């Protein structure tokens, strides 16, 4: 059976060029980057060069790039670090309702510690309400966080405007750029943010390595202590091979960004056009054009997303469900609910995210199989039977 991977928003395969760049730092230059001998100095040289390269690619200074274990840690650090550093100035923070779970869950924990959060709403396309943001700002507001591109529906947010508003009020501004980095242009000077998170495995780099951009001069608390790495701000032995791979992957992603975006968006549009025209009772979630090049999040009425996911998997097609399994009970996507999608429809959502190695033939095969699966599942659905005027005993 051929295997087709349409889950690139979850993670991407490691680019072979990146793997080749990393290999010597597993075997030949394997010293601890904080050691003073030759092997340590060579490892630190590679880390410094990688930091320089990453900084230049996003318009930052090397001293503003801090390596983390990934996007989740970077998101946590952004929230918790500002909370620690500015708690005497204020305890009010603002994030959108459609942030990644790393932000939503961390915010809930900070609320237990006495911080207050305002959760910005979004419109039916998933775009944050800037007027609501203006109204939500208080004298004790210390943080505003809005992701650049949503991980579920792919909607691109007006982060420049968010940052402008934050700056006018003297408030620290953060953007989760984990999904955006490597897919669309990301430059910290252009965006105007104070903090920005990203992760290598979203653009064909290694897993387990990410970064937080922290604008020079911004006070920042620590969440990992016990070492002097990352200029004393983040303890832990430096993952040299991953850091090297991180820089190489981002460099390749930036060089090939326009070419890949054009190609992948063509696959996405072909998929969306065929699904919307050939399968009835479906809804595209997110902004139709203001979205990531590779994202197609679609809700299918009258059936569960998990049933579609498992059926596609049996056909060799890997996708992601718009619902999450939590504590043994199925919960609809908080992103779709924030966008006003009906709860039943939210349960029937599937995220298809394409990559640079996918083909038109794979897209067409997936749509053909999807048509068969949806028809079969709806034939078993009492809800679908009702709209057809049929009567079924259940």
Topology summary:
Elements: E1 4-5, H1 16-22, H2 24-27, H3 38-58, E2 65-68, H4 71-86, E3 92-96, H5 101-112, E4 116-120, H6 130-136, E5 141-145, H7 159-168, E6 172-176, H8 188-191, E7 195-199, E8 210-214, H9 240-255, H10 257-278, E9 282-285, E10 295-300, H11 305-314, E11 317-318, E12 320-321, E13 324-326, E14 329-331, H12 334-338, H13 343-346, E15 349-353, H14 360-379, H15 382-387
Parallel strand pairs: 1-11, 3-4, 3-5, 5-6, 6-7
Antiparallel strand pairs: 2-8, 7-8, 9-10, 10-15, 12-15, 13-14
Structural description of this entry:
- This protein is α/β, with parallel strands linked by helices.
- The protein has two domains: 16-255, Aspartate Aminotransferase, domain 2 (3-Layer(aba) Sandwich), CATH 3.40.640; 257-387, Aspartate Aminotransferase, domain 1, CATH 3.90.1150.
- The protein has helices spanning 16-22, 24-27, 38-58, 71-86, 101-112, 130-136, 159-168, 188-191, 240-255, 257-278, 305-314, 334-338, 343-346, 360-379, 382-387, and strands spanning 4-5, 65-68, 92-96, 116-120, 141-145, 172-176, 195-199, 210-214, 282-285, 295-300, 317-318, 320-321, 324-326, 329-331, 349-353.
- The strands form four sheets. The chain has a seven-stranded mixed β-sheet, with helices on both faces.
- Helix 1 (16-22) packs antiparallel against helix 9 (240-255), helix 3 runs parallel beside helix 9 (240-255) and helix 11 crosses helix 14.
- The chain is globular, with a radius of gyration of 22 Å.
- It starts with a strand and ends in a 7-residue tail after the last helix.
- The model is unreliable at 323-329 (pLDDT under 50).
């Amino acid at each position: 059976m051929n295997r087709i991977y349409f889950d690139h928003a979850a993670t991407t395969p490691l680019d072979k060029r990146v793997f080749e760049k990393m290999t010597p730092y597993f075997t030949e230059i394997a010293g601890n980057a904080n050691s003073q001998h030759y092997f340590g100095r060579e490892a630190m040289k590679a880390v410094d060069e990688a930091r320089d390269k990453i900084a230049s690619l996003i318009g930052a200074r090397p001293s503003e790039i801090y390596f983390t274990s990934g996007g989740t840690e970077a998101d946590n650090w952004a929230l918790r670090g500002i909370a620690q550093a500015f708690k005497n100035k204020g305890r009010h923070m603002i994030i959108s309702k459609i942030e990644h779970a790393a932000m939503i869950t961390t915010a809930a924990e900070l609320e237990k510690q006495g911080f207050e959060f305002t959760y910005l709403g979004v419109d039916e396309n998933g775009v944050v309400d800037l007027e609501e943001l203006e109204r939500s700002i208080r004298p004790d507001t210390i943080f505003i966080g809005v992701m650049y591109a949503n991980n579920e529906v792919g909607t691109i947010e007006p982060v420049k405007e968010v940052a402008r508003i934050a700056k006018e009020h003297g408030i620290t501004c953060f953007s989760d750029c984990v999904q955006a980095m490597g897919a669309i242009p990301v430059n910290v000077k252009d965006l105007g943010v104070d903090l920005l998170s990203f992760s290598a495995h979203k653009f064909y780099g290694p897993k387990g390595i990410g970064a937080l951009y922290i604008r020079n001069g911004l006070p920042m608390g620590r969440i990992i202590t016990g070492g002097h790495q990352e200029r004393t701000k983040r303890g832990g032995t430096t993952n040299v091979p991953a850091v090297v791979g991180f820089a190489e992957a981002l460099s390749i992603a930036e060089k090939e960004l326009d070419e890949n975006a054009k190609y992948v968006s063509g696959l996405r549009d072909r998929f969306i056009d065929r699904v919307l025209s050939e399968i009835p009772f479906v809804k595209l979630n997110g902004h139709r054009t203001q979205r990531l090049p590779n994202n197609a999040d679609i809700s299918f009425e009258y059936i569960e997303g998990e049933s579609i996911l498992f059926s596609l998997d049996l056909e060799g097609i890997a996708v992601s469900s718009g619902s999450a399994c939590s504590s043994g009970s199925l919960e609809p996507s908080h992103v779709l609910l924030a966008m006003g999608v009906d709860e039943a429809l939210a349960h029937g959502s599937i995220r298809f995210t394409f990559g640079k190695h996918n083909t038109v033939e794979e897209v067409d095969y997936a749509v053909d199989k999807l048509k068969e699966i949806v028809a079969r599942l709806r034939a078993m659905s009492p809800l679908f039977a009702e709209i057809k005027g049929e009567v079924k005993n259940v």
